[in-house]
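Researcher: Let's continue the batch. This sequence belongs to Prostate and testis expressed 1, and it's 128 residues. Same format as the previous ones, please.
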Amino acid sequence: MDRSLMLGLPILLCCFTVLSGSLLHRDDTDNEIIVQEDNYYGQGLQIIQCRMCHLQFPGEKCSRGRGICTATSQEACTVGRIFRKDGTPWLTFMGCLKNCATVKNINWGVYLVNFNCCRGYDLCNEML
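Model: Same format as before. Here are the structure tokens for Prostate and testis expressed 1:
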């Protein structure tokens, strides 16, 4: 694999992790339960929970950063997927992301990156 791409992957994943705020709430346990009494935040904006996984390779379970994050009013649940140019899945990551935007087919060397965002319901990024 191209050395520059392998050096760029940690940078991409680090940016995602920092933006999602998950460095502050990192927990490598297999199961994490978050209980909230109030399902609304601020002025009627719904708080949602998002599935979180920093690294998941095709056909495998989440290998780093598995858990649940709570999206603030400025955040959304997101799923990022990296594909080889031939369409073969290579890596998936998910979590909470501030100023999330759904974008398709960002060129990253020999890879394409897709980001999908949602706020419709708890764990909405599991099915994206």
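Researcher: Any comment?
Model: The chain has a mean pLDDT of 77.
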